[in-house]
Amino acid sequence: MNLTLRIWRQKGPEDKGRMVTYPVDDVSPDMSFLEMLDVLNERLILDGEDPVAFDHDCREGICGMCGLMINGDAHGPQRGTTACQLHMRQFKDGDTIDIEPWRASAFPVIKDLVVNRGAFDKIIAAGGYVTAPTGSAPEAHSTPVAKANADAAFESAACIGCGACVAACPNGSGMLFTAAKLTQLSLLPQGQPERYTRVIGMVDAHDEAGFGGCTNAGECTVVCPKGIPLNTIGRLNRDYLTATTKGAGNTPGS
Amino acid sequence: MTKTRSPIRSNVGLKAVMAVTGILLVLFLIAHMLGNLKVFTGETSFDHYAHWLRDIGKPLLPGVWFLWILRTVLVVAVVAHIWAATVLALRARAARPVKYAHRKKVRGSYAARTMRWGGVIILLFVIYHLLDLTTGTLNPVGDPGNPYGNVVADFAPERWYVTLFYTLAIVTLGFHLRHGAFSAFRSLGQQTPRGERRARTAALIFAVALCAGYLVVPFAVLTGLVS
Ligand code: HEM
Ligand code: SF4
Ligand code: FES
């Protein structure tokens, strides 16, 4: 099939950037979205032009590196799917496809479609870890965990840190990511010692990075490739309100 | 790490402020609606109720004290609610300085999308409403001794535009609460999927009931049921 792509091109962080139109012919419906961009880039290189920069690594939906706003949808039109796992059969011959980077002040554009998601690392550094020595995998039933908690923690642990939740949020909020990284620990026994200092640290880091606040609009959970549910944010809210009213201090990891 | 800002100013804390103040306002709205429905019990009963409001707590508190305490609480709640809403709206705007060239309409509910402008409409209505039926400035009768007469004059058929504005404001309030009532539970820590479904259903039923309760009064006057 033949497509018209309109892609955000930006030479560097200081460049103003603009949408540029590229026709791409003979696209196979079996290609992944990133393979289609590879085809375009090979042609650009042969023509002596600068190829389109985009992030990717595993190309199998687990690393969280890829992230494109495709026709206004974070990760494209297919739900529960990262951009790298999206296939061209989701599009029709003759389609025009707009491709933009994630837009958030906390995610500055480095080049073209690549953004700096270092703000997520700062949120993790502010509390997204445990200090309990876990060692090698223990006997499964030596520390009992309620099934509901284990399931919810596992669901949260599926977050790959792609940033689609921020990209789609009308408030540019990173709450779904922060809540996922929080609950994967706060629901398990290993996460209890820092439970309340962790939430304060992570919410502070979230706010400081310049993300907006959550209005429970629910856009994040729609685009999340791992289907992290919206109620995860309620868990964060509850832990935060408990921690701050208890005066649990503000030293993550202590 | 040092403390960066007071917890109340965090994105989570501000939403908790909105939730608590919103719930206070909702409690008032319920009481106010039940009071309005007294209009169906006749003129004397309604006027008696309106005057009684000024006397609550009489032996303990002198004169209209109770009314003033209530008014103070409500004003503080409204100011805090709007303050938090404004800070959050400004932060949300700053969080996305470059807009998308291709942006789909937000998929969440209409109610969730219109919280901010809906709030502004409600505020404008409340100001008008106070000038109309509390101070009487904008009321055709405007007699503080005759609340029933003020209400009937307000929604007379030839003043259809008043009824129209009133209806629009109440429907806007209904949408605000359809999302807001659910959102308040979430902001205060509602955390399970099942609870979320319940909270959303409860918010919808509540919003519809509240709208109906407020709208029967003007439509009863309009159709001559109350005159
Ligand atoms: C009768 C008056 C009002 C009532 C009963 C009310 C009630 C509520 C409730 C219960 C919430 C949910 C709080 C939360 O999500 O935690 C809310 C949110 C909100 N309200 Fe109001 N409100 C009223 C007036 C206003 C006014 C006058 C404004 C603005 C000028 C406003 C703007 C907002 C905004 C922007 C939100 C945030 C929506 C969100 O974050 O999801 N409200 N309101
Ligand atoms: S919550 Fe979902 S959308 Fe957000 S970073 Fe994690 S996987 Fe990506
Ligand atoms: S490239 Fe790893 S998730 Fe898409």
TrEMBL record, chain A:
Pfam families: Fer2_3 (PF13085), Fer4_8 (PF13183). One of its GO terms (molecular function) is electron transfer activity. PROSITE patterns: 2FE2S_FER_1, 2FE2S_FER_2, 4FE4S_FER_1, 4FE4S_FER_2. GO terms for biological process: aerobic respiration; respiratory electron transport chain. The keyword Protease does not apply. Gene3D superfamilies: 3.10.20.30, Alpha-helical ferredoxin. Keywords: Iron, Iron-sulfur, Metal-binding. Signal peptide: none annotated. Residues 150-179 form the 4Fe-4S ferredoxin-type domain. Belongs to the succinate dehydrogenase/fumarate reductase iron-sulfur protein family. This is Succinate dehydrogenase/fumarate reductase iron-sulfur subunit.
From TrEMBL, chain B:
One of its GO terms (cellular component) is membrane. It comes from the Bacteria. Keywords: Membrane, Transmembrane, Transmembrane helix. Coiled coil: none annotated. SUPFAM superfamilies: Fumarate reductase respiratory complex transmembrane subunits (SSF81343). The chain crosses the membrane at residues 12-34, 65-90, 110-131, 160-181, 202-226. This is Succinate dehydrogenase cytochrome b subunit. It comes from Micromonospora orduensis.
